[in-house]
Amino acid sequence: MAICKPLRYGxxxxxxxxxxxxxxTWLGGALHSLLETALTFRLPYGxxxxxxxxxxxxxxxxxxxxxxxSLNELVTLVDVGFVAMxxxxxxxxxxxxxxxxxxxxxxxxxxxxxxxxxxxxxTVVVTYYVPLVFIYLRPGSQDPVDRVVAVFYTTVTPFLNPxxxxxxxxxxxxxxxxxxxxxxxxxST
Length: 189
Hints:
Domain G-protein coupled receptors family 1 profile: 1-165
Protein name: Olfactory receptor 10G6-like
Transmembrane segments: 80-103, 115-137, 149-167
Membrane topology: Multi-pass membrane protein
Pfam families: 7tm_4
Number of strands: 0
């Protein structure tokens, strides 16, 4: 909205619309989690209670179950696949609109600023969704790389998010450049 209809943004994105979008997101996440949790609780578990991850995620918990987890894996694949595909299609659709709006901007500086905003958002989206899809769309995987990927999307992406958006600020860029220029001076003393 901010790029495609900048003059109407304040009217279209009212407080009510923002609240409805947030409530819809929370409700969707709660329903998604409720489905996965209910299916996970119905499984029988043995004596092995050590999860091979740093957090209890659905694929890791399913590995502890003694019974047949094929229904859980199928539901996880379909559910997460649906959520990931829906998000991907919404993001792709919005970027088609955004790129077409950016290409209509007459000034090179305006296009550059708009692409800068999009690049920061797209970087965060890619660093979150690619590892997430890698983990969830391969149910039952025993690959040790899954642990590294799970740590990546749960720690690296939230760490990068403020860094990426902070570096869009001119004062922060200038401060970072001064710091980088001082680094050779610091190492020679």
